[in-house]
């Protein structure tokens, strides 16, 4: 079993839809959870960051972490064509110097 | 973009040749990372550095070496490039003290023929 599992999609939705992206993980030591957005031929861009369990909202984006289920989600409200990208979840156990463990990414396409 | 640049941005080379990729940062960050990104595998850590001359291996370090002689520069070297090292290489820095958030450079697209 991979440490982090993420459905690669692709996921296609119409403009204005609510999008739900998810990752599951197996390492209970993970404490920091991130979502990155990556446009084609660009570097990953940090979108949301959450420590431990709970919700965090930033504009149209909401990140949720459920450590008891080892499950994290990213919700995008009122999706826009500019949201079309690959979304990567990432997490770490917050030990100095350790790398992030990434999901493989979900490709999202929002049509106008 | 957290002041990270990578060079070259694109490179085509032949099997067996040495290749060096450069990551340069302008904000004096201590931690720097090299990842590769491949279809079906996602982002995987090659090597990282926690200070000048302090480096350690990541998940996929075989065939790669790194050096950091200055805070601002982290070099990734393929001593003898192979076709399996065709990939997109990203450099990252850890920006915020006390968190594990990382910020990525624009990437280098390497093709080994």
Structure description:
The complex is a heterodimer of chains A (112) and B (113). With 112 residues, chain A is mainly β. Chain A has strands spanning 4-6, 11-14, 19-25, 32-38, 45-51, 54-58, 61-66, 71-76, 85-92, 101-102, 106-111. In chain A, strand 9 (85-92) and strand 10 (101-102) form a beta hairpin. The mean pLDDT of chain A is 92. Chain B contains no helices and 11 strands. Chain B has strands spanning 4-7, 10-13, 19-25, 32-38, 42-51, 54-57, 64-70, 73-78, 87-94, 102-104, 108-112. In chain B, strands 2, 4, 5, 6, 9, 10 and 11 form a 7-stranded mixed β-sheet that branches. The relative contact order of chain B is 0.33. The chains are: A mainly beta (112), B mainly beta (113). The A-B interface holds A 32, 34, 36, 41-46, 49, 51, 88, 90, 92, 94, 96-100, 102-105 and B 1, 31, 33, 35, 40-45, 48, 50, 56, 58-59, 90, 99-107, 109.
Q: What descriptors fit this protein?
A:
heterodimer; A: 112 residues; mainly beta; five-stranded antiparallel beta sheet; B: 113 residues; seven-stranded mixed beta sheet; four-stranded antiparallel beta sheet; 11 strands; globular
| Helix vs. strand class of chain A | mainly beta
Alpha plus pi helix count of chain A: 0
Helical content of chain A stands at under 10%
What's the helix-strand series of chain B?
EEEEEEEEEEE
SSE string of chain A: EEEEEEEEEEE
Share in helix of chain B: under 10%
């Amino acid at each position: 079993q991979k440490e982090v599992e993420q459905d690669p999609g692709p996921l296609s939705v119409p403009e204005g839809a609510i999008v739900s992206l998810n990752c599951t993980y197996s390492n209970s030591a993970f404490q920091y959870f991130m979502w990155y957005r990556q446009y084609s031929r660009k570097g990953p861009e940090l979108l949301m960051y959450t420590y431990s369990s709970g919700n965090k909202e930033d504009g149209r984006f909401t990140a949720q972490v459920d450590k008891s289920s080892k499950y994290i989600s990213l919700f995008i409200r009122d999706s826009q064509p500019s949201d079309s990208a690959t979304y990567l979840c990432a997490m770490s156990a917050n030990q100095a110097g350790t790398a992030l463990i990434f999901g493989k990414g979900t490709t999202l396409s929002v049509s106008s | 973009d957290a002041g990270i640049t990578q060079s070259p941005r694109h490179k085509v080379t032949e099997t067996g040749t040495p290749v060096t990729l450069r990551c340069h940062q302008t904000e004096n960050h201590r931690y720097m990372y090299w990842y590769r990104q491949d279809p079906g595998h996602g982002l995987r850590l090659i090597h990282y550095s926690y200070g000048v001359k302090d480096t350690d291996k990541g998940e996929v370090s075989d065939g790669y070496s790194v050096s950091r002689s200055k805070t601002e520069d982290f070099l990734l070297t393929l001593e003898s490039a192979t076709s399996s090292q065709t990939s997109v290489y990203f450099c990252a820095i850890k920006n915020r003290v006390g968190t594990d958030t990382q910020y990525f450079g624009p990437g280098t697209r390497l093709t080994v023929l």
